From TrEMBL:
PANTHER family: GLYCOGEN DEBRANCHING ENZYME. The keyword Transmembrane helix does not apply. Residues 729-879 form the Alpha-1,6-glucosidases pullulanase-type C-terminal domain. Pfam families: CBM_48 (PF02922), Pullul_strch_C (PF11852), Pullulanase_N2 (PF17967). Residues 154-232 form the Glycoside hydrolase family 13 N-terminal domain. It comes from Streptomyces endocoffeicus. Belongs to the glycosyl hydrolase 13 family. NCBIfam families: pullul_strch. Keywords: Signal. InterPro entries: GH, Glyco_hydro_13_N, Glyco_hydro_b, Ig-like_fold, Ig_E-set, Pullul_strch, Pullul_strch_C, Pullulanase_N2. The gene is pulA. This is Pullulanase-type alpha-1,6-glucosidase. Residues 41-143 form the Pullulanase N2 domain. Residues 1-29 form the signal peptide.
Length: 885
């Protein structure tokens, strides 16, 4: 999820424009404008060309109508919604409906291109108004235009070197092209609502904007907006203008681009993903020639690229880039970016001065995670050597090529669920072209902001089309190998499946890419105005099961870490952080019996996670019951929801919330040594790494990456966010108290930790944890038992032989094919006897037996009794077929 922020735009009043296609629209009179502007909400919804839904009850004494410019009227009559309409609009199913009088439907074209209000009046007195409200338009726009508009090619499209520019603006009274300082007329297609103009070859790479004359309900008047193209392929600096750019232009392709060989495609169920932010990756890397830029991924000899290459050789298959599309919260020219004016390194480790200094320039510096979409299909300019036009395209492509040369495929984090702004805000693109259509509106007409910002409505045909078209462009033109959907649960399931279908149609012969190999996953959280399928069938965890599109699984994550990011006391413990087995003394953990019960339940959640979160995977829980994954409770929801391996994506940390190291810093006892903290980190990572299905980790987590306890570092600058690839530079811990905005309530817990030498790891801990993680990754990648393709395969191969009432708190013993894995999260050595395996030869897996971790090499196996022994805070993998001790 995104950082909680005040929304950049909130429309409590929305007189929402409606549009059909008319050849001419009369000017809106001052009287009509004033009348329309008195409607403070937009509670009526015109859902198709003949139907309006409005929560007012008709009586014999009332009449209902739509009023538009200069006294025009569309009469309404009471009606009932059909079953099909109720299915299409479930949140409106129980509301009164009205049918447009057939005699008035010919007036709609005029009515819908200016101010419009729904009025209930006295039946015998037109001037006696009982209720008045604005009207929401998306449904009728889709009904009237979507069939043809969906087939339109929008943005700049080249044929034989000549561009055609097209924009969907059905409610506009006029659209013209502002091309390099001159105005060019555009033509409207009445059937699709698309305005277009054909140009000449000399238009190539010229700057342009659309000049859109349209009724803007947020300000209650007709405006002429100069707006960039939602389908932009290139931009000038700071996204001021679009450019007439052909992405197929050979001048934009780096050497070898057409023949680029990617690493072998890895099925989603086997994907191991490193999530990183482009600036974080290299901004503090003194060995990079291009700090903070796309080109840093071409610096093969840099510390960062050498580390990614090591991970790739161990089994990491994808790099997941935090938003790299054009976003609206960073000045793109380096000369315009502010820098903190303090000597941050000279300040004490527990000072509040670092965060204060960083906050002073946060809105003007070069840092933001980028979850603030401005243009969805253009690379972000601040990561390019030059934010003007061609460099963005060439250098993004060079980045993809650089990752491929390192053995890694590229995933993009995409954010189609909201925009950086709406209404008449200068950074509002979609809503200034078709006001009230692209943003999701609430019952009163206000823009939904549950996603943190002005929400979009992919359930509307042309927003859904934009999502699909944008994804296909990234895949075809930039050779992106996967997409992670931010807040995917705010998309309809049908929209995400449409993306999958469009990608599957891409072929190497026709498109230069194999679309079927492109992976898709996202955040399937269920919340906000779309929750519980209120408006459509959502792309949530439960609903996406069986689609081949994965959702992040929070079940095992919470069980491993303990607690949650919003706990008043951050010391709530979990499996890897010492719950019951190494208590930290916090009263938030409860008494011993409560801790033990919580730990055992956490172990059941982790077992479900290790199965790939399968709903039908059956095992004996720690209460002694035979249960399915779906019968294990996770905060009132089923823990298991997946239908097949690959439906759920495992992780222990990501960019949101504290890093894994910082979470463990809070939760492990303060006296825990740096060496044991590193070992606990590897145990936590192993629960995701050794699960069925895909797994993700935040870049640097294997190096014990810290953000100095910052829970929400989206705007915390380089000081708190940069990855330190050289262990001599530390891991980022102790860089001051984390920013007050999201962390001040935890400062009393943070302050003593930041000066505690036991919490600050050195090179032995940092490099040792990374090496141990890579050993586990090699095992996961090379042992086929971890790659079950079906739920039945998992059921046959996977078991937890010691699960039940006698299970050891803090230890999980997993049998998987020829392997036995002991997850020992306790601080002491533990023995696990599996009588059924007595006499079977086992030995520590060769990767660990000859690996970097000396401690795991002290693990043992007693063949006569079937006893496996693992040191404290260790994950030991044993393989059958070799003589045990």
């Amino acid at each position: 999820m995104k950082p909680p922020r005040a929304p950049l735009f909130r429309s409590a009043a929305a007189l929402v424009t409606l549009a059909l296609g008319a050849a001419a629209v009369p000017a809106v009179s001052q009287t009509a404008r004033a009348t329309a502007a008195t409607a403070a909400t937009a509670e009526a919804q015109w859902i198709d060309r003949a139907t309006v839904v409005w929560r007012v009850e008709h009586t014999a004494a009332t009449a209902e109508e739509l009023r538009f410019a200069d006294g025009g009227t569309l009469r309404l009559a009471p009606a009932a919604l059909t079953d099909a309409q109720k299915a299409a609009y479930p949140h409106l199913a129980d509301r009164p409906a009205y049918r447009l009088d057939p005699r008035d439907r010919g007036k709609a074209a005029t009515a819908l291109r200016g101010p419009l209000t729904a009025v209930q009046r006295a039946a015998d007195d037109r001037d006696h108004v009982l209720h008045r409200t604005g009207v929401q338009i998306p449904g009728v726009l889709d009904d009237l235009y979507a069939d043809r508009a969906r087939r339109a090619r929008l943005g700049p499209v080249f044929h034989g070197g000549r561009p055609t520019l097209s924009v969907w603006a059905p409610t506009a009274q006029n659209v013209s092209l502002d091309l390099d300082g001159r105005t060019v007329a555009m033509r409207r297609d009445p059937g699709s609502g698309v305005w277009s103009v054909a140009g000449s070859p000399d238009w190539r790479d010229k700057p342009y904007r659309y000049r859109v004359r349209v009724w803007a309900p947020s300000v209650g008047k007709t405006v002429t907006n100069q707006v960039t193209d939602p389908y932009s392929t290139a931009l000038t600096a700071d996204s001021a203008r679009s450019l007439v750019t052909d992405l197929a232009d050979p001048r934009l392709a780096p050497a070898g681009w057409a023949s680029l060989k990617k690493p072998r495609a890895v099925p989603l169920r086997d994907a191991h993903i490193q999530e990183l932010q482009i600036r974080d990756f290299s901004i503090a890397d003194r060995t990079s020639a291009h700090p903070g830029q796309y080109l840093a991924f071409t610096d093969r000899g840099s510390d960062g690229m050498r580390h990614l290459t090591r991970l790739a050789r161990s089994g990491t298959s994808y790099v997941h880039l935090l938003p790299a599309f054009d976003f609206g919260t960073v000045p793109e020219r380096r000369s315009d970016q502010a820098r903190p004016g303090c000597d941050l390194a000279a300040l004490p480790a527990d000072s509040d001065q670092q965060q204060k200094c960083v906050a002073g320039t946060a809105g003007r510096d070069g840092y933001n995670w980028g979850y603030d979409p401005l243009h969805y299909t253009v690379p972000e300019g601040s990561y390019a050597s030059d934010p003007y036009g061609p460099a963005r395209t060439r250098e993004f492509r060079r980045m993809v090529r650089g990752l491929a040369h390192a053995g890694l495929r590229t995933v993009m984090d995409v954010v189609y669920n909201h925009t950086v702004a709406a209404g008449q805000d200068g950074k509002s693109v979609l809503d200034r072209i078709v006001p009230g259509y692209y943003q999701r509106l609430l019952d009163d007409g206000g823009v939904a902001t549950s996603t943190c910002c002005p929400g979009t409505a992919p359930e509307h045909a042309m927003m859904g089309k934009l999502v699909v078209d944008s994804i296909v462009t990234w895949a075809r033109q930039y050779k992106v190998d996967g997409f992670r959907f931010d807040l995917m649960g705010h998309h309809p399931k049908a929209n995400i499946l449409a993306v999958r279908k469009a990608l599957d149609a891409l072929t190497p012969a026709k498109d230069g890419v194999d679309g079927k190999s492109i992976i898709l996953y996202g955040e399937g959280w269920n919340f906000g105005e779309a929750a519980d399928d209120a408006r459509f069938v959502q792309a949530t965890q439960r609903n996406m099961a069986g689609t081949g599109i994965a959702t992040f699984s929070d079940r095992a994550r919470d069980a491993v870490r303990g607690g949650g990011p919003f706990d008043e006391d951050p010391r709530v413990q979990g499996f890897a952080s010492g719950l019951f087995t190494d208590p930290n003394g916090s009263p938030a953990n409860g008494g011993r019996d409560e801790q033990r019960a919580r730990l055992l339940h956490a172990q059941d959640l982790i077992k479900v996670g290790l199965s790939g979160n399968l709903a039908d995977y059956t095992f004996t829980d720690t209460g002694g019951r035979r249960v399915k994954g779906s019968e294990v409770d996770y905060n009132g929801s089923p823990a298991g929801y997946a239908a097949a391996p690959g439906d759920a994506l495992a992780y222990a940390d990501a960019h949101d919330n504290e890093t894994l190291y910082d979470a463990l810093a809070y939760k492990l006892p303060a006296t825990t040594s740096a060496a044991d903290r590193a070992r606990a980190q590897v145990v936590a990572l192993a629960t995701a790494t050794l699960s069925q299905g895909p797994a993700l980790s935040q870049a640097g987590t294997d190096l014990l990456r810290s953000k100095s306890l910052d829970r929400n570092s989206f705007d915390s600058g380089d000081w708190f966010n940069a990855i330190h690839w050289d262990c001599a530079s530390g891991n980022g811990f102790g860089r001051g108290l984390p920013p007050a905005a999201d962390n001040e309530s935890k400062w009393p817990y943070a302050k003593p930790l930041l000066t505690n030498p036991a919490v600050r790891p050195g090179c032995p801990e940092i490099t040792g944890a990374s090496a141990a993680y890579r050993d586990l990754l090699r095992i996961r990648t090379t042992e086929k038992a971890f790659s079950q393709s079906t739920a039945e395969g998992v059921r046959r191969a996977l078991s937890f032989p010691l699960s039940g009432t006698g299970e050891t708190p803090g230890v999980i013993t997993m049998r998987l094919g020829r392997l036995v894995v002991v997850f020992n999260a306790t601080p002491t050595r533990q023995s696990q006897t599996v009588p059924a395996l007595a006499g079977t030869p086992y030995a520590l897996h060769p990767v660990q037996a000859h690996g970097a971790d000396a401690t795991v090499r002290t693990s043992g196996y007693e063949r006569t009794t079937g006893t496996f022994t693992a040191p404290g805070r260790t994950v030991a993998v044993f393989a059958a077929g070799a003589a045990g001790r």
